[in-house]
Amino acid sequence: MAQPNIVSVASIYGQSVGATLTTSFVAFITVTAEYVVKVNSITVANIDGATAATCDIKLVKPNATPVGITNYDISDTIYLAKTVNVPADDILVVVDTPFYMMEADALSALASAASDLDILISFEAIID
């Protein structure tokens, strides 16, 4: 598993993905080989005008050791949001401070009620 050097990159692609959440986890970003993804923001909008719903958003990391760090072996699921309430006709800002995803990391989300919540993820895909 290579970690791209983001000081000397070949390309940076500004992108966003979004969808209506279901009651099962769906992976919206899975980082492919030779890429690093910088997630800039994640928002969840409740499009149901009458009822609140909750969302879960998780980052699944494979078994990997970050460059420059010893004795820290990452293999875990990290929740960015866990059963967080999104009131009717409201927006939840889950992430507004960027973080990096490494090769094979996956970002997934679900809602407590199908078709009530929309997610939007803004990110940069970086390759060296």
Could you describe the 3D structure shown?
By secondary structure, the protein is mainly β. It has one domain (11-127): Nucleoplasmin core domain (Jelly Rolls), CATH 2.60.120.340. The protein has no helices and nine strands. The protein has strands at 11-20, 26-30, 35-46, 53-64, 74-86, 91-95, 99-101, 106-111, 117-127. The strands form two sheets. Strands 1, 3, 6, 7 and 9 form a five-stranded antiparallel β-sheet that branches. A four-stranded antiparallel β-sheet has the order 2-8-4-5, with no helix packed on it. The radius of gyration is 16 Å and the shape is elongated.
Based on CA atoms alone, the radius of gyration comes out at 16 Å
Largest sheet: 5 strands, antiparallel
CATH H-level superfamily = Nucleoplasmin core domain
Number of helices: 0
Query: What would CATH call the class?
Result: Mainly Beta
Keywords:
single chain; 128 residues; Jelly Rolls; four-stranded antiparallel sheet
Short description:
This protein is mainly beta and 128 residues long.
